[in-house]
Amino acid sequence: MRLGVFTPLLSQLPLDKVLTKLRALDITTVELATGNYPGDTHCKLSMLDDAAALKAFQQTLKDHGTSISALSCHGNPLHPDPEKAKQAQEVSRQTILLAEKLGVSVVVDFSGCPGDSAHAKFPNWVTCPWPPEYLDILEWQWKEVVVPYWIKRAEFAAQHGVKIAIEMHPGFVVYSPETLLKLRSIAGPAIGCNYDPSHMFWQGIDPVAAIRVLGDAIFHVHAKDTQLYPANLPRTGVLDTKLYTDERNRGWIFRTCGYGHGAEWWKEFVSTLRMFGYDNVLSIEHEDSLLSPEEGLSKAARFLQEAVVREAPAAAWWI
């Protein structure tokens, strides 16, 4: 297993300087955003139609000895606003095509969230079964919007040798291991997850135990932590809509790795991933409102270096 970095945290720097900075941290793998919510600072989809730009991009990576773990296009392809949905879907389509050209096997995305009907203007995330119309909305969302889109998108990805790693994120229809596996059972093995433990923590899901549930559906992993605040949780609960920067009053916030849970926890996390077949990249994602991107990155890199096991174990003498 090795460390990587999701580069939007360094969006103020050009790609070559990002790669130089990461090399100094002994990191030679990157996850690059191509549009939608994270933007496209370091990886332009226009390279699909610009052979010279694509060649220069690949040469920059080669010069720095850097590989790509995934291309990411986190968006809402199911948005009830047709124009917003179309834009997110097109970024997804082009990202899959660019991944194929670059020999990158994984594209990270969100599942998306529709509205409550064909006439809705805004997404509607259903979180409880009562009053009963909520379940009617959820059934309509999956049957009429989620299933048709994702069956076709999974087929398209498979045709181009790419797997789609859905990040389980509250606010979208896939936010838990159960909902991820539901989508995978419908759309097929080209759908799996980008596993971000920070989103499990605050939902009350044990991220290590959930690895055993997800198994080979884990295609890519984010390294990001969450800190819970027991002093606030009795008042806020976990469905806390205050801004992430209102740290004093929230029930939880995202943290740089090591600031929410210690080394022992992260070693168990890495070991369990390997136990269940994932031995690829831990992609550092920085969303810690208490640390700058520079400090968060350097601290996470130093902290995780010890947790990452770099070599496969030798066969035991008794095997």
Automatic annotation (TrEMBL):
Molecular function terms from GO: isomerase activity
Residue span, Xylose isomerase-like TIM barrel domain: 21-306
Keywords, ordered alphabetically: Isomerase
Coiled coil residues, start to end: none
Pfam families the UniProt entry points to: AP_endonuc_2
Record-linked InterPro entries: IolE/XylAMocC-like, Xyl_isomerase-like_sf, Xyl_isomerase-like_TIM-brl
Superkingdom as given in the UniProt entry: Bacteria
Keyword Methyltransferase among UniProt keywords: no
Protein name according to UniProt: Sugar phosphate isomerase/epimerase
Origin species: Paracidobacterium acidisoli
